[in-house]
Amino acid sequence: MIMLRDQIVFDLIQKELDRQEDGLELIASENFASKQVIEAMGTVLTNKYAEGLPGKRYYGGCEVVDEIENIARDRAKELFGAEWVNVQPHSGAQANAAVMLAVLNAGDKILGFDLSHGGHLTHGSSVNFSGKLYQPSFYGVEKETGMINYDHVLEIAKKEQPKLIICGASAYSREWNYKRLRAIADEVGALLLADIAHPAGLIARGLMDDPLDFCHIVTTTTHKTLRGPRGGMIMLREDFDNPFGLKTPKGVVRKMSSLLDSGVFPGTQGGPLEHVIAAKAIAFSEALSNDYMDYILQVKRNAAVMANRFIDKGYHVISGGTDNHLMLIDLRSKGEITGRDAENVLIKADITINKNMVPFDTRSPFVASGIRLGTAAITTRGMKEAEMEKVVDLIDDVLMNKDNESKIREIKDGVNSWMKDFPLYK
Ligand SMILES: *Cc1c(COP(=O)(O)O)cnc(C)c1O
After folding, report:
1. What pTM did the predictor assign?
2. Which end of the chain is more exposed for a tag (fewer CB within 10 A), N or C?
């Protein structure tokens, strides 16, 4: 097999590496996977078809990938204290699609956390499969506190009678009351799904409450705080009979694990990405290490320091702080600057954040009144509390001088040389 190396694409990959090395990465959903995690993804495992599960495949030659997938499953179970996992979902959205296909019928009611309050598209948004195939209703945060009022969740659940209640979010910085949510789900006869795509790493290492104690089903991504390859996963603390009584064609009540496995394949996916599953196995083992424990503790400490610094500088941090790795800032306390303005001007200084709707936002998602920031990526680079204060000061400097081109260029040069003190891959 003699082929010319595709220099066009590899040059662009190099350019992206440079961008990641030189910039200050504050997108809350991003992180930097280890070299061995990345190495595993660029292997011949991508050549292999392995539809089905280890030991029960639809293709021959799966002996080796069976071993790899079993290692990934065992490590995931150890990491989260789960009885059952499926490591095949290609992404967090795919994991949620598989769960909903497994436990719902088209037209069933679901109750999720409002997208504009920090929820995710896959929790019932009208532009997503979850809002098109099912009938969604939503709960949100209180205007005064920026936090979820569980009495209000109960009220909506009683009125709507959903078959599935979804908790978890993309831009909610606070702890979740899983015990209370389970009581609400039990009261209305709903299943409870926790989507821990964001705080998975903090939960795995005991730094946040454990949803597996109370939620029937838990989904996650593997690439956010968990710091693995881009992918998803579904977990059960304990397997149980499907409470809605769905039976196999032979009349047997199916276990939830079996329903969920078929929700992934053949329900929503074809062949699993075994090269990514190998990288997941490596990432799970990394996440079980003492080094990762130090890392994830620092992620949480850094977020608390960052949120406090923003508050000291007069920014409105939604809910007044953070219990996890991220924060949502309402820029309306700082005059006319929108989320979009902030994102656009910060990128000129090589500081990457994302614009985000804030609860009760009056602007569209394309403009938005807020920004979301997280500490998972910069903590991987080795930044600690002192650096968090500098990061906030830099952001404030950019936003307060947003029309001063030369000042922004000066800040960008400063960011680029500062980042050399926190080497990444080079
Ligand atoms: C990021 C995220 C997802 C989706 O993950 P993808 O891998 O991008 O599909 C799902 N749910 C929540 C809450 C998320 O934050």
Report:
1. 0.96
2. N
